[in-house]
Amino acid sequence: MALADLDTYQTPPGRRPSVLARLSPWPALAFYPAVLRIVWRSGRLARRGAYGDAQWVAASLGIIGAMERAGMRLVVEGMEHLRGLGGPAVFVANHMSTLETFVLPAIIQPVRPITFVVKDTLLQYPVFGPVLRSRDPIPVARKNPREDLKAVFDGGAQRLARGVSVIVFPQGVRSPGFDPSQFNTLGVKLAARAGVAVVPLALRTDAWGSGRILKDFGRVDPSLPVRFRFGPALVPERKGAAVQDAVVGFIQEALVEWGSIPRL
What we know:
Layout: E1 9-10, H1 19-23, H2 28-47, H3 53-69, E2 74-77, H4 80-83, E3 89-93, H5 99-108, E4 114-119, H6 128-134, E5 138-140, H7 145-161, E6 165-168, H8 186-194, E7 197-204, E8 226-230, H9 241-257
Parallel strand pairs: 2-8, 3-6, 3-7, 4-5, 4-6
Antiparallel strand pairs: 1-2, 7-8
Helix pairs in contact: 2-3, 2-6, 3-5, 7-8
């Protein structure tokens, strides 16, 4: 059974971390080797042109398994909103860590084909780059906002017209907090221009922290919850202001509930 066949998924309460995770003072030792093995295998397949949707979902499920073996606990809510979509959509989410980019394919791809808006330099990574390129992402340079806007509007419209949904992280950079003033309207505007729905997505993934030297390899803290919550689809009007406010409010409310940010 696929994750999205459920309305809510929760790591089974009786699932114990692996022996290594229980014995090691650093849960990262039980997590990162498994992640690197999955990424390495995925990269080899992608370089051979053999990394398709099924392989992407399998790798994402493998990451979830590695999380749970390292002691992290996952809760995904609102998956009925994915099954209720009548066509492609723009998923608009906050951005906390690397974790969401690894986990979301296992949740969404079995229901709706998806891709990401990504920083163009990620496509040049020696192992992970071929994997990303195989997923036909929308690259942005994050140097010229006007050029990035055009890239997302043009590339997003093309993919949505083919039935491929798009995941947008309007914050641009990963942050354990949430600042609405830094949450741009790009995803909502793309949806309005393309005539598709917006699906708000709140997430808490700071259990996979950012590293000081290597940003993608930070502290792993199983005491922090890993949460994903999808909201009902919203249809933006011409400028999308009301939907933007609704998405921001949805994310803020979830983060407050999960103890990630204080209530204002």
